[in-house]
Every structure is written in C-alpha cells, then in structure tokens.
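Hi V.,

You were right to ask for the full record rather than a summary. Here it is.
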Amino acid sequence: MNPLRVALADDEPLARTRLARLLKEAGCEVVAELPDGPAVLRWLEAGGSLDALFLDIQMPGISGLEVLAELQDCQTCPPVVFVTAFAEHAVRAFEASAVDYLLKPVSAERLSKALARLQQGAVPPRSVGELKSVLSAAPRFPVKAGDGHVFLELKRTSHFEVEDEVVYAWAPVGGKPIRHRTDWTSLGEVEAAFPNAGLLRIQRHLLLRPEAILGLRPIEGGRAAVRVAEGLDLEVSRSVTPKLKELLGL
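Predicted structure:
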C-alpha cells in the first residue's frame, strides 16, 4: 500500500513539528507543514494534492473549521482530520463532517487509528451526544478581574502555578506574561477541569501546557529549563525531564 500523502497546519511550531514527526514515523509522506489557514488555502490553490489534511481548529485569521467550509465548496476537498486541545472543538469538528479528530497532545496510538480510518475510507457512525459524553474538557476558565471575573482561553495559558492554596494562570497581556488569579486552590482541580488537555506537572507547584513551550535547555542535575515566554523560563524536575523530552521528540 502506498504511503498516505498528508499535509498539516498548526500555528504552534512545536505542535506542528511533533505531529509531522508522528506522521512520518507512522509511514506517511508529509508534503507540507503550514502555519495557518490561509497558507493551507494558498497551497491547495497552487495545485497541492493530498490523501488527507490535518488541521488545527483554533488558528489565527482563519480557523480550521472555516478552512474546511471553504474546501467543501471545491470539487477536490481532501479528507480532513481535525487536531484540537479542546473537547468542545472536537464535537464541532464532528459536526463539520471531518473524517476524524485528534485531541492534543496527539498519541501515536490514537493517530494510528485515524490513519487506518483514512486508508479504509470509512467513517464509523457516531453521534454528537456520544462524543459529548466521552469528552469533558472546557476551552476556557474564569480568572479574577476587579470585583468580578473574565474568561481566559486555555490555549493562551502557558502554565499554572499554585502558591498559598491559590492557583494562578500565566497568560500574556500586551505581549508580556502576566499572572492571573483563579478560583482554584490546587493544581489537581486544574487537571480535573481539563483532563484531555495534556497538562504536565513539572514541579509540585507548576503545571505546564507543553504546547506553549518555545524552547528547552538542559541544566545541571539531569533537569531542564523550558522557555514559555520572553524572559520566562520554568525549571523541570529531574524525574519529569525524560518524559517531557520524549513528548517533544528530543
């Protein structure tokens, strides 16, 4: 059987590189790695041919769902597999007639099942209700703002930190990382709120969203430091460092 010719689009470079590696390891021919929705449309308009397209749902400019809507108006729409960190978006992907969906961080086992479905040309019948019963993560959460709350998207968050039984979410404001106070009192509550988001406990007081990592460097004692924003590095414990490196394909 000839290898599947696939392209992928994700605005997060680390996630894009990792998915490309997993696809290649699964025997696929990755013909394009694209940073956003407009790049996908331009590449296809230029004559790119595919057996499948892996699309991140939440991208700046044009979302993955909007890309699929554009492609469905064409005669040559490749089968689409959506990739998302949020279960709520997975339900929308199913409603949008995607062949399949993958929750981040994508596992090799789950990817293998999606590729088998593509090769067989079969989309098993599933209901939106069934998906909702299996998937429970929420894409955003409240943080304190004055006397009230505002909602922060998980994708904008690099990590969570607990201090004196108060959990803070770190997310940029005006390009600078800012600590936002939440209503949670432990990191366990955060993990319970986002069971499918792939959050990783790198220290007792730190919970990291791996997709937010900009870089990694080794430090003494078998540990590592990860950069999540300009001027903001987090130390990873020695016991977690090997797992994180494996997750990142290092």
